[in-house]
Every structure is written in structure tokens, then in C-alpha cells.
């Protein structure tokens, strides 16, 4: 195995499969492994390098599967281990790597360990796998402190003891059905090392690590000064008691040893909502994780100032620890980019759901999202594409309230609709019930007109977002692989950079047409150039220079 093929991930495009909404093979209205296997040729032809599959473990799906009841199995509604193995073999046969999602901060309350913890009572070794504390007040009726769940409401829930009396409280950063593990407990640490090996031995190529900045906590920390509510908001304090604590790095050093024991080595990608870039870089030191989502880039407004700062920070700071930059615009937690870029305020809001309100110009958003795709795919390092992003799907903003499933909806007292609007099942066909998603409808209602954005409608249409992604992913392979870029002189509203000697990308984020630098050929453009050869606003080009 050459170094280049060991380092496949450094400039890879990784496609995110939200399995419940990707393709339904068994007609029960929810996506599954069978549906994904049928659609693998689509992913191969799209030109991506790897898949990351959102959690498919047994789960009550209170938080879309991020509430795991058994870390070593597959939920029957998604398939079984034999199908998972076939999927891995078939994906590998197509030259695609497969990453899974591991959720180490918490389990579901349906996990065997949590049930044992409830049954065993205070002070037991079973309770010591989670974070149970006595309450405050005369009868322990008050939570141990004021910490809040990032989904809204208190981060503590009181249990009823086996003898029927009101009892201790357990800690949950997320939903009440997602109790946090106690990572001080060696049994928890050992368990996860074993889980990693279980999936690596099955042939999985790596993991995306959920809430990678969680796990280690200072449960003796003080009450927190909350002044805003929002998903994954961190009160801006140094030494946060449950996010980004230094102790987490020791865990990753242990995980890395396991990954490196395989040939080729396995890969870890961090989902870590930490700032500034220097803090993120600490997760990517040589003996820790390989790569991380660039949420700073995702949250940036569609302006040259914000994007250029984010690009420079990412390349420089991550490069200082030898890690490649990565680029991401969408995932299953944030608003679709077509919608966000179609608003007056294009920066994502606070917290990791990042939703802002206001009118949306979908046409403008689509034009910008097309330009943003060429920008992202021209930058050095790796990139992530969330299913449906390649179709230019917009956020579904008008899901009926009774269909909303995200725990954010209830926990926010029905003030925040949550993340379902980016999780609506994919349209594969122009018509038919569920637009080709499956024979049994779709678990979230698809909007009228969804078929116009389907794979069927966009395939073969040279003007479609899908055609743009297919061309860009193919042509991207010819962009010099070195991990740097050189900015070219440009007008204030324009981003222009070179990769190597012969390739340039120019993006006009303003409204006035911009001059292109001298070039031999336009390789690809996100929209038509002006009759004078100038670059219109909200348009990007790749040039041979
Ligand atoms: C991550 C996931 C999100 C989930 C949360 C709790 O942020 O991306 O979907 O709700 O972790 O596991």
C-alpha cells in the first residue's frame, strides 16, 4: 500500500448518508441498507470517495438514532449485520470507503446498561457507568445544578428508585432519553475500544465521532451563565464543564492506536463544535484524530471577508498540526444551504442547528449554492456533501407540526421546529408516491414539486445542480493535490485563488460583473458568463490558467 493510498482521506469527498431518508428498500417508509445498496451505483457515478452513514444501530429514534440502544448491532428497520457486511463489500467493490457514526458521549435510555443502572440503585457499579447525582434541596427535589440540555430544558432528570421513591438525577447533555456516560469509568473506556474493533473487523474504514468535544466532564463545575438558548450553544466561558475539556485528548490517543493497528489504518473524523481553530487543531495532532468538520466555514456568511478569513484560518491552523483543511456546507443538523444563502442573513445562527428566520429567495439561494459548490470543491483538503445537497434541495420549512420528530420541538416548548426540514426523504423520481423513495410512502411528508429536484429529473439536464456536482467531482481529480492555495489579486467582492500553476477558481460574491484573470480556458462555471466574458454576481468559475 502506497502512502498516497493510505492518505486517501486527505483530499477525499465524503458523502453523508442519512440512512433513514436516503432510499427505502423494504417499503416501510424509512430508508434502509437495502435501499442504500440499490443506489450504490448512483454514488459511484456521482464521483465521491467515501460514504459516512448516520447511526444505524438499534434505537428508539428519539434523536434520529443518536440515541443508541446497542452499539454492536443494526436496527431491524434498517437491516441486519449480514446486510451491513454485504454493503461494505459492494461499496469497496466500487472503490468507495465507508465510515460509520459512533456516539460515545451517551447512549439511549433503552441501552441495557442504563436499564441495569436504574434497577441497581444508588452507589452501584451499574450506576457508575452513567452520571447519577443526588439532588439539592431538603428532599433532593432540585437538580444538582443549573446546566441545560442543548435541546432545551434542564440537563438533569430525576428517576424513581426501584423501591418507588423519588430518587437521584442523571445528567444528559441532549435529550432526556440520552443519558451521558461517565468517561472517568474505565469500564466505559474499555467498552468503546471494543466497539471500535468490532466494526473495524467487519470492514468499516473509519468513524465520524459524534460530539467529539463531549465525553470528559467536570461535574463539580459551577452553575453556568446562560443568556441565550439554542441548540449546542456553549455559554462563552473558559474551562467549560462539559465541552472541549483537555482530558478528552487522552481518549483519542488510545483510539488512534487501535486505528493504526489496521492495514490500511482506519480513519477518525471529529464532530467538534469548538472555537477558535486552534482548539480544533488540538484534536488533529499526529497521535489523535485525522480530520474534523469545519463548522467555522459552514457558519460563515456568503461574503468574501468571512469566507476568506475562514479559509485562511483553516488552512494555516490545521496545517500547523499536519492536518488537511475540510469544507462543509450542510449536514443533518443545519439548514440546507440553498435556503440559508437565499436569506438576507446568510451566516448560520447560533448553536449547531443554526437556523435563522426571514424570507427566502430560493432562486438566489440556488445560484449561490451552485457557486459555493465550486468554491468548496476547489479548495485544498477534503469536502463533505450531505445527501440532497447535490440535487440543490431546499430546506422544507412548512412541515406540518404533527409530523415533527426532532426532540428540539418539544423540549423548546414548541418554539423551535428543529432539524427535520433537512431530513425529508430524497426524491429519486419525478413522480409517484414518495417520488421513488420507496414503495411505502415517506416517514416525513415530501413537499409538492419535490420531483422536479429528483435524481431522475436532474440526470441528463446539463443545467441541473446534479450535473454541476458530477462535473465538478470528476474535474476536481485534476486539481493539483498540494494542500495550499495562492490568493490572486481581485476586487473586494471577489475570491480568486490558484492551486498549483495551472488551475484557478474565481467566485464573484457581489452583484456587479467581475473581470476574470488571464486564462487559457474556462473548465467549469456555476452559471453562464456575461456576453463580455465577465463573471456575473453569485457565480463561480474554474479556469485553466
Ligand atoms: C450530534 C449529531 C446530532 C445529535 C447530537 C446528539 O451533534 O450530529 O444530530 O442530535 O449529536 O447525539
**Main sheet characteristics:** 8 strands, parallel
Oligomerization category of the chains in this entry: single chain
Q: Strand order across the biggest sheet?
A: 9-8-7-3-2-1-11-10
The N- to C-terminal Cα distance equals 34 Å
Q: Helical residue percent?
A: 10-25%
Total helical elements: 15
What is the radius of gyration computed over CA atoms, rounded to a whole number of angstroms? 23 Å
Overall strand count: 16
The low-confidence runs, each spanning 5 or more residues with pLDDT under 50, are none
Supply the helix-strand structural class.
alpha/beta
Q: What molecules are bound to this protein?
A: alpha-D-glucopyranose
Mean pLDDT: 95
User: How much of the residues is beta strand, in percent?
Assistant: 5-15%
Outline = globular
Tell me about this structure.
This protein has 545 residues and is α/β, with parallel strands linked by helices. Helices cover 25% and strands 13% of the residues. An eight-stranded parallel β-sheet has the order 9-8-7-3-2-1-11-10. Strand 7, helix 7 (248-260) and strand 8 form a beta-alpha-beta unit. The radius of gyration is 23 Å and the shape is globular. It starts with a helix and ends with a strand. The model has no long low-confidence stretch (mean pLDDT 95). The structure holds alpha-D-glucopyranose. Residues 63-64, 66, 103, 174, 210-211, 271, 332-333, 352 line the site of alpha-D-glucopyranose.
Amino acid at each position: 500500500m502506497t502512502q498516497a493510498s493510505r492518505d486517501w482521506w486527505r483530499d477525499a469527498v465524503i458523502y453523508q448518508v442519512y440512512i433513514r431518508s436516503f432510499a427505502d428498500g423494504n417499503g416501510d417508509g424509512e430508508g434502509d441498507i437495502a435501499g442504500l445498496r440499490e443506489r450504490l451505483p448512483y454514488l459511484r457515478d456521482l464521483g465521491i470517495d467515501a460514504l459516512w452513514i448516520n447511526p444505524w444501530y438499534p434505537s428508539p429514534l428519539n434523536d434520529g438514532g443518536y440515541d443508541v440502544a446497542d452499539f454492536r448491532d443494526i436496527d431491524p428497520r434498517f437491516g441486519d449485520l449480514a446486510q451491513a457486511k454485504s454493503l461494505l463489500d459492494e461499496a469497496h467493490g466500487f472503490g468507495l470507503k465507508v465510515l460509520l457514526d459512533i456516539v460515545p458521549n451517551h447512549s439511549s435510555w433503552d441501552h441495557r446498561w442504563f436499564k441495569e443502572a436504574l434497577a441497581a440503585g444508588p452507589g452501584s457499579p451499574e450506576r457508575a457507568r452513567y452520571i447519577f447525582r443526588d439532588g439539592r434541596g431538603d428532599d433532593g427535589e432540585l437538580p444538582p445544578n443549573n446546566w441545560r440540555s442543548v435541546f432545551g430544558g434542564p440537563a438533569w432528570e430525576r428517576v424513581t428508585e426501584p423501591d418507588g421513591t423519588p430518587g437521584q438525577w442523571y445528567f444528559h447533555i441532549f435529550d432526556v432519553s440520552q443519558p451521558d456516560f461517565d468517561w472517568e469509568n474505565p469500564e466505559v473506556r474499555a467498552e468503546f475500544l471494543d466497539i471500535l474493533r468490532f466494526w473495524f473487523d467487519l470492514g468499516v474504514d473509519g468513524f465520524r465521532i459524534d460530539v467529539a468535544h463531549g465525553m470528559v466532564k467536570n461535574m463539580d463545575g459551577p452553575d453556568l451563565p446562560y443568556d441565550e438558548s439554542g441548540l449546542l450553544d456553549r455559554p462563552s466561558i473558559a474551562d467549560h464543564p462539559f465541552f472541549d475539556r483537555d482530558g478528552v485528548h487522552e481518549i483519542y490517543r488510545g483510539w488512534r492506536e487501535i486505528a493504526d493497528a489496521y492495514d490500511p489504518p482506519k480513519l477518525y473524523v471529529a464532530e467538534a463544535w469548538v472555537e477558535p481553530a486552534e482548539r480544533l487543531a488540538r484534536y488533529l495532532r499526529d497521535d489523535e484524530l485525522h480530520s474534523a468538520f469545519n463548522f467555522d466555514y459552514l457558519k460563515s456568511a456568503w461574503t468574501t471577508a468571512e469566507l476568506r478569513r475562514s479559509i485562511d484560518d483553516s488552512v494555516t491552523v490545521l496545517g500547523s498540526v499536519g492536518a488537511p483543511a475540510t469544507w462543509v456546507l450542510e449536514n443533518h443538523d443545519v439548514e440546507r444551504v440553498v435556503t440559508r444563502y437565499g436569506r438576507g442573513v446568510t451566516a448560520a445562527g447560533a448553536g449547531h442547528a443554526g437556523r435563522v428566520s426571514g424570507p427566502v429567495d430560493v432562486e438566489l439561494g440556488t445560484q449561490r449554492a451552485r457557486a459555493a459548490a465550486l468554491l468548496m470543491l476547489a479548495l485544498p483538503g477534503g469536502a463533505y456533501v450531505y445527501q440532497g445537497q447535490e440535487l440543490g434541495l431546499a430546506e422544507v420549512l412548512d412541515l406540518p407540526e404533527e409530523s415533527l420528530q426532532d426532540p428540539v420541538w418539544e423540549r423548546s416548548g414548541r418554539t423551535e421546529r428543529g432539524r427535520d426540514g433537512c431530513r425529508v426523504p430524497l426524491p429519486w423520481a419525478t413522480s409517484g408516491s414518495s417520488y421513488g423513495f420507496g414503495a411505502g410512502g415517506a416517514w416525513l411528508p415530501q413537499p409538492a414539486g419535490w420531483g422536479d429536484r429528483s435524481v431522475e429529473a436532474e440526470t441528463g439536464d446539463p443545467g441541473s445542480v446534479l450535473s454541476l456536482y458530477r462535473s465538478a467531482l470528476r474535474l476536481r481529480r485534476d486539481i493539483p493535490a498540494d494542500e495550499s492555495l495562492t490568493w490572486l489579486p481581485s476586487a473586494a467582492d471577489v475570491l480568486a485563488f490558484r492551486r498549483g500553476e495551472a488551475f484557478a477558481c474565481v467566485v464573484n460574491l457581489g452583484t456587479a460583473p467581475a473581470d476574470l484573470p488571464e486564462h487559457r480556458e474556462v473548465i467549469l462555471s456555476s452559471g453562464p458568463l456575461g456576453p463580455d466574458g465577465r463573471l456575473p454576481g453569485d457565480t463561480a468559475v474554474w479556469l485553466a490558467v
